[in-house]
Amino acid sequence: MESLDLRVLADALAWKRAGHAVTLVTVVETWGSAPRPPGALLAVRDDGVVSGSVSGGCVEDDLIARTKAALAAGTADQTSAKPSLIAYGVTKEEAARFGLPCGGTLRLVQEPLREVSWVETLLARTAEHRLLARTLHLASGEVVLADAVRGQGMAFDGQTLTTVFGPKWRLLLIGAGQLSQAVARMAGMLDFEVLVCDPREEYAAVLEIEGVQRVAGMPDDVVRELLPDAHTAIVALTHDPKLDDMALLEALKSAAFYVGALGSRRNQATRKQRLAEHFDLSADELARLHGPVGLSIGAKTPAEIAVSIVAEIVQVKNAVSAAVARTPGCTVV
Fold first, then answer.
1. Distance CA 288, CA 85 (A)
2. Can you give the pTM of this predicted structure?
């Protein structure tokens, strides 16, 4: 899933608490060229305000009109209404009318949000970096939550819809200098949860970026306590081996999907030798280290280097996701 879908649920929860009627719409099947993948989520408020997307804008207007018309006609009593299936683009004419590209077809589940306890639980558990599977029974509208495993994808058999929700991608930066601040800002715009660890007060004192959390402690302790998972990237940017190596020796043994460190090729070779000799890191663990960190784009300024670093993190993240998506029956989580 995408963290966008967690924001959709957070919006839906806020609207429901404010007294609005809310309808959730989930993509369950696509044919042809579809703008949004199975599992994509949209929330429609009773006044037509929306959060999320199921088609990139092609059918949202019609969904809004359907929802408002049902409410106006009194046929959408959300305490008893049940989920239903909607299809768009079944014919070439309909695909053209709704602007679906290349004759694409969408099959959607439309679901009145009857109660919010499951939304509250799901948001709380994913905030704890847990993966959850949500199963909707179409016949009754009942929702059941259960723990999920990485690689588990959306499943729909016509009677039950199971979608997987996971934690936000997060990035731990070791160092709070100018480069780290640039990386933090860019990663924040990509919806990463950004954490920064720097025990040097003269650097950490200037870290004032909205949405970026400073984590106190020494780098190795912080990495260990973070319990890095497959949604976590760790990048060491202090250029001080005493600090960077402390973080790396824990990060390279963790489940983090990306571990990188600032430094030239010569410095990286020296670092790997040092880590192998003094910290007993294996060849496989050392091979996980991205260094010099970032894509080779001729970057020179801190902002350009930050672009290269964030781009490589996204490249690795999406390569992992693409491998999962190629597995039959799976979608990216």
1. 45
2. 0.71
In total, how many domains does the chain have?
A: 2
Cα–Cα distance for residue pair 74/68, rounded to 1 Å: 10
Domain that holds residue 144: 3-165
Which of 232, 306, 223 lies closest to 262 in space, CA to CA? 306
pLDDT, one tens digit per residue, over 152-186 is 888 999 999 999 998 889 999 999 999 999 999 99
- Whether 97 and 238 share a structural domain: no
Do both 223 and 159 map to the same domain?
no
C-alpha–C-alpha distance, residues 133 and 267, integer Å: 44
CA–CA dist 163, 311 (Å, integer): 28
Q: Distance between CA atoms of 18 and 203, rounded to whole angstroms?
A: 42
Tell me: the pLDDT tens digits for 213-252? Answer: 999 999 999 999 999 988 899 999 998 988 999 999 999 9
Looking at 142, 165, 188, the residue that finishes a domain is: 165
Same domain? For 13 and 141 the reply is yes
Return d(Cα 217, Cα 223) in angstroms, integer.
10
